[in-house]
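Fold sample X.
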Amino acid sequence: MAYIDDPHTQKANLRYIRASMREPMLERDDEFELARRWRGDEDEAALHKLVRSYTRLVVSTAARFRNYGLPMGDLVQEGNVGLLQAAAKFDPDREVRFSTYATWWIRSAIQDYILRNWSIVRTGTTAAQKTLFFNLRRLRARIADTSTGRLNDEGRGKIAKELRVKFHEVESMENRLNANDQSLNAMIADSSDDSWQDFLADTRPTPESVVRTRCDTEIRSRWLDMALSELSPREQIIIKRRRLREDGATLEELGRELGVSKERVRQLEHRAMTKMRDVISENVEAPADLLIEA
């Protein structure tokens, strides 16, 4: 996906970049003093001076990501957001230069923007995917077959090892980067009346299948109710608690509840299942449709 700025925007961006590069860099003591004034006294003038002095850092970081097809002006704006976040969280008492601290925030903001806008399909949703997205091109240029520009399995293995990701993740991201976004409404060929969406399989059950399943379920429920009605109250409790729940009760639990041993519960369960099987066999033409194991 590529974006092209209009001439007016390009000129405005160029003026901003030139102005940013002319801003003088701060000495260590100066930036710490500005940061303390902002943190302690909420001195906005100190904040503005601190941020302006490092907009050149935003520009240089954004320039490293200009090959992802997004407007340079947008990358700079996102980098400025990261710069402001860094200024808001910077603690001068940690004795770390602001430029070092801000670099991470600026790069993170720009990368997040690229991942959100590079494609309409969400990319880089995991740490491994994000690492691959921003490093695969560089490593592929160094490792790939120069005649085809594609990686072989050996090359993919080297990248997976270097980036500490799985082999299939390298292969998946390579395919993703080589593919362009395409509308499902687009025709598969100029001479065809079929669109890509015409070939998407509908995995939902058919209406006939839905109706058949509903009817079968209702019939099996009637068979089950009929068989349960032939059981004693204690046998019904055991079957319902042991066989008709996902988290069935144990023999020990039912034994405590009914005041009998585990072995007695097992015997009652076996007898109840035999009764149900016999009732269904006598009253249903195809008892195998309702599988009941004693």
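Fold sample Y, listed below.
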Amino acid sequence: MLVTDIRRPIGPRGPLPLVVFAHGWNSNPTADETLLDSWAAAGYLVAAPVFPDSTDTLPGTPVSNYPEQALDLSFIITSMLGGRAGPVDPNRIAVAGHSDGGTDIALLALNPSYADHRIRAYLSLSGEIPAGVPGPWGVATPGSLLVAVGTDDQYGLLVRSTQVFDTANTTAKVLLRVTGGDHLEMYVGSSPEAMALRADTVLFLNDALRPAGATSAKLLSALEQSGQPSIVVSNN
């Protein structure tokens, strides 16, 4: 059993679109609650498991276990589709993650050994392709991918997150580079830039989970409307 934080939108009873979120190393879902709350406020059911290997809420030294955590996300999808938190729309399922959690998402989106074709949208936030996990990488995957990263990421993830985007062979994809952006605050902070970035993730989810799906061109057009010059949007 995985301890899982659940956020429900106020009003709608379902079936609801689902976002399953993966937290980072030495962390837990509360570190990202501003981001998770923005998705719930936009009408999404949000499920955020606490990974026992990498959380900061349990004794011991956290470790990264990307393959196990990617499988955990699929397990949570199955549990949520079983009605554990109310009815879920099986045609509108997304996974998202930050830092090591973003790497979990890259594994689901890029590696066929971990593919879960119930997923229609992937958000890899400041993640990378995990070292030491066998490929192949970049096999065609249905669904849409958003990759976001700050140019001043404290862990030097600009190049490695961009590699996730470049390797992806999803139906549609979009890359957000935040000029001067850091590792976490640009997602959860109170600045106009952080609020615009959270709004962009909602726009991505809305477009990617439409019945007709999305195209890279449509995602680019939708996300270019943020009005924040520091958020550079591209699809190539």
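Sample Y note: Helices lie at 33-41, 66-81, 100-110, 158-167, 185-188, 192-208, 216-223.
Also: The longest strand covers residues 88-98.
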